[in-house]
Amino acid sequence: MDMGESVGTKVILVQVRSDHLEAKLTFWAAAAKPDQAISLVLSFAPAGWTAEIVNFPNNTQFAKMKKMTLKPGEVRLLV
Length: 79
Prior knowledge:
The protein is α+β, with helices and mostly antiparallel strands. The protein has three helices and four strands.
């Protein structure tokens, strides 16, 4: 089994939210299986923040991001 099979290569959109009263949202792309994408992204977020997988919106900006090339296990901050 190669790394792509064990981690996943599909780009998943993950929304990360701060735990503050004035919530801050960031979006990340992760080349991983859905269950692994959240863990990978949260490893870069401050303690106490939460993450969830969301669908890519139907707009041009996110359509380009959905097609981006990431290595298996790679994450990238989008917004």
